[in-house]
Amino acid sequence: MLMNRTRFKQIWQWRIEISEMPNLDIYAKDITYSPLGIETEAEKVGCIVFNFPTSNSSTSISMTMRDDEDKTIYNSFSTLVSKVVNPDGTVNLAKDYLLTMRKYSLFSKQKEKVTEEWKVIPTKVGDISETKEDGGYLEFTISFEEFRSF
After folding, report:
1. Which of the pair, 36 or 7, is modelled with greater confidence?
2. Cα separations in angstroms, 82 against 11, 79, 89
3. Rounded distance, CA 27 to CA 32, Å?
4. Rounded CA gap, 68 and 139, in Å?
5. Tell me, what DSSP letter sits at residue 79?
6. Which end of the chain is more exposed for a tag (fewer CB within 10 A), N or C?
7. Can you say whether the dihedral through the CA atoms of 21, 128, 124, 112 is positive or negative?
8. What's the CA gap between 17 and 117, in Å, rounded?
9. Could you tell me if 146 and 58 are in contact, meaning their C-beta atoms sit under 8 angstroms apart?
10. Span 61-90, pLDDT tens digits
11. Which letter does DSSP use for residue 125 in this model?
């Protein structure tokens, strides 16, 4: 089995494993997510507003990736996002786009540990940033939404 290796691995990064991309070596430069959240609904009584909890909210996950000049990771993520909604506007079944994503924290001496695992929907391939410093990397964000809120 061929593994696409990146030359970006750093101790301060996280390794990301995505079920639909088992042969891709993915490292995130930064990750943003909110593990806990409560949705509320406002109710106005006179001039006072009361907020009442209505449900748990799902986790939104956003990561910044570095990619090679062939856009290997970018193209793979774009394919994942395109599996959610068809060009005619119809939405596919969850079995077609639901992913398992694991975040591995990297420790000294090349040890790593799974520190988060989510069932997610790929929702966005974000802005691309290209730079000529440090070897001319391509950076972009990818976003996911957790499939369920509990």
Report:
1. 36
2. 32, 5, 11
3. 14
4. 9
5. H
6. N
7. positive
8. 9
9. yes
10. 999 888 877 888 888 888 888 899 999 999
11. E
Q: How far apart are CA 71 and CA 67, in angstroms?
A: 6
- List the beta strands (DSSP E) in the chain: 14-18, 26-33, 38-45, 48-56, 60-67, 99-106, 112-130, 138-146
Phi, psi of 67 (to 5 degrees): -135, 165
pTM of the predicted structure, to 2 decimals: 0.75
* Contact between residue 34 and residue 116 where contact means Cβ atoms under 8 Å apart: no
Vertex 124: Cα angle to 129 and 3 (nearest 5)? 75
For residue 5, pLDDT over 60 is answered with no
Q: pLDDT tens digit string along 107-143?
A: 766 678 898 999 999 998 888 887 766 666 788 889 9
Provide DSSP, 57-78: -PPEEEEEEEE-TT-HHHHHHH
